TrEMBL record:
This is Agmatinase. The gene is speB. Its EC number is 3.5.3.11. Belongs to the arginase family. Agmatinase subfamily. Mn(2+) binds at residues 114, 133, 135, 137, 213, 215. SUPFAM superfamilies: Arginase/deacetylase (SSF52768). Keywords: Hydrolase, Manganese, Metal-binding. One of its GO terms (biological process) is putrescine biosynthetic process from arginine, via agmatine. It comes from Thermococcus waiotapuensis.
């Protein structure tokens, strides 16, 4: 299956299937044109794929070997340099094409900066958006661009999608007021608990799009990301939430965003690769 805007990249190590037959379809978007502090997320998709080469495909605590699952990788989006909206259009068109060819597939987007999640949500039209992030991402515009990575949750809210955010520890007063006014639930990182997550997400309509901005983890775990913040969540906090979602909600799509880095084996990419394997394994093991 060919798409207008994708090109072949480094592949995952284990056998992959054709996208038409896959349960999970991976797509990278190497775009970091609006990152505001540290660039490098353009290398995220390749760094994450490289980091998977370090990992066992067998997930011990699930007794699931993801090498035995039906996974496709359609490569990376050919980005429009400096244009986050047009690149997100390409993400949208590619995921729409994936769903036309294989309606049952679960698309997984590897970023690249968070602005590109908008393209995936526009394509999949979930009822709810659940995001783990250090940042509210509810700015109406940032650095004169309404499609800046700091605005993605605002644009998604404007689509009428219900939103819930966890691990938050950065934002502006205007963003907090917007969230309050628009019924957007968010939990500060210092108040996060699995119980708080379940309490909020239980009532969200399905299907759910799950987005993980890698900066939700503490900067000691993920130093290579565009806007790192101290005081983040632990890796297993997010895995536990993913397992609950896989058991209780239909998941429309998933992404891991804002992974930057310069070198093979970057800790941020390693954390992202492990999370990718746990997501795929949890859906395979627990989903209804
Ligand atoms: N969603 C995000 N990653 N937001 C980051 C926005 C920019 C925060 N720096 C503001 C610095 C002011 N001195
Ligand atoms: Mn963030
Ligand atoms: Mn974000």
């Amino acid at each position: 299956m060919e798409f207008l805007y994708t090109y072949e990249t480094l592949k995952l190590e284990f056998p992959l299937v054709e996208p038409e037959r896959a349960s999970f379809i991976i797509l990278g978007v190497p775009f970091d044109g609006t990152t505001s502090f540290k660039a490098g997320a353009r290398f995220g998709p390749t760094l994450i794929r490289q980091a998977t080469l370090n990992l066992e495909s067998y997930i011990l605590d699930y007794d699931v070997d993801i090498a035995e699952l039906s996974i496709a990788d359609v490569g990376d989006i050919a980005v429009v340099a400096g244009d986050s909206r047009r690149t997100a259009d390409r993400v949208r068109e590619t995921i729409e094409g994936i769903k036309r060819a294989n309606p049952g597939a679960l698309p997984i987007l590897l970023g690249g900066e968070h602005s590109q999640t908008l393209g995936a949500v526009e394509a999949l039209r979930p009822a709810s958006y659940v995001v783990f992030d250090a940042h509210l991402d509810l700015r109406d515009s940032y650095e004169d661009n309404p499609y800046n990575h700091a605005c993605v949750a605002r644009r998604i809210s404007e689509l009428g999608v219900k939103e819930a955010m966890f691990g938050i520890r950065s934002g502006t007063r205007e963003e907090v007021e917007f969230a309050e006014k628009n019924g957007i639930r968010w939990v500060h990182a210092r108040d996060y608990s699995f119980e708080a997550f379940v309490d909020i997400v239980s009532s969200l309509p399905e299907p759910v799009y799950l987005s993980v901005d890698i900066d939700v983890f503490d900067l000691s775990v993920v130093p290579s990301t565009g806007t790192p913040e101290a005081g983040g969540l632990a890796f297993w906090d997010v895995v536990e939430a993913i397992e609950w979602l896989a058991k209780k909600k239909r998941i429309a799509g998933f992404d891991i965003m804002e992974v930057a880095g310069e070198r093979l084996g970057d800790p941020t990419a390693l954390a992202a690769a492990k999370l990718l394997f746990y997501f795929i394994g949890a859906v395979a093991k627990f989903s209804r």
